[in-house]
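agent: user wants the structure for UPF0225 protein NCG91_10925 from Janthinobacterium kumbetense. delegating to structure tool.
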Amino acid sequence: MPTPATSAACPCGGASYASCCGPYIAGDALPPTAEALMRSRYTAFTLRDEPYLRATWHASTCPADALFADEEKVHWLGLEVKSALRLRQRKAESADQAEEIQRDSVEFVARYKVNGRAHRLHEVSRFVREADKGDGGALRWFYLDGSFPE
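agent: tool returned. relaying tokens verbatim.
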């Protein structure tokens, strides 16, 4: 699977891959927020990095089947995060902040082409932050599932 040059713009829209999603995908750092995890997962989809996607998918919802088909040719065009800032502001005002930190949602639109035809994926992804049983119990974010607004 190809990796962007360290100085190249990050597929998620960040300044450079090396300072954005690169350290998360390489395993050198953990995404500190649900939004950072969502962005890194989008980048991993553009790179077809199935091991990273599985490592960041909650065990209770991770599919057993392969995530990519060999014949599937998807060209990712861009990512727009729609509601992460609003969610952070709402959390800052929450009286029960400790519980809020453990769960989060990020609404986004990802644009892509399949066989030259444009598509968009509008999703509200749910994330949970809990101890990673395979990493000495370090707290980390996991993708749980998503819903698709109309």
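agent: one observation worth passing along. Confidence is low (pLDDT under 50) at residues 85-90, 92-101.
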